[in-house]
Write a structure and sequence with these properties.
By secondary structure, the protein is mainly beta. It has one helix spanning 7-12; strands at 15-17, 26-30, 35-38, 54-59.
């Protein structure tokens, strides 16, 4: 049987760089472990202290932010 990936599994393998335009609404995680909800048309932000970084798709917006809030950042924190 051929190896078939769902769209979410396929997107999870994509990496993006700060400054690129977001193509899909969803939750994204950077290499420092911060999660951020981003919408199509947004730009991947730079990390406030570390500068440009890589982002990966973590799941749909319905997956929500982490409950403990430690790794969740407001979008304004990255500008």
């Amino acid at each position: 049987m051929p190896n078939v990936l769902t769209m979410q599994e396929s997107r999870a393998k994509w990496t993006f760089i700060s400054g690129q335009e977001v193509t899909y609404d969803g939750m994204y995680t950077n290499v420092w472990g911060s999660k951020l909800p981003l919408m199509q048309g947004d730009r991947f932000p730079m990390h406030p202290q570390m500068g440009a970084c890589r982002w990966t798709y973590s799941g749909p917006l319905s997956s929500g932010l982490p409950k403990d809030g430690r790794s969740a950042k407001r979008r304004d924190d990255y500008r």
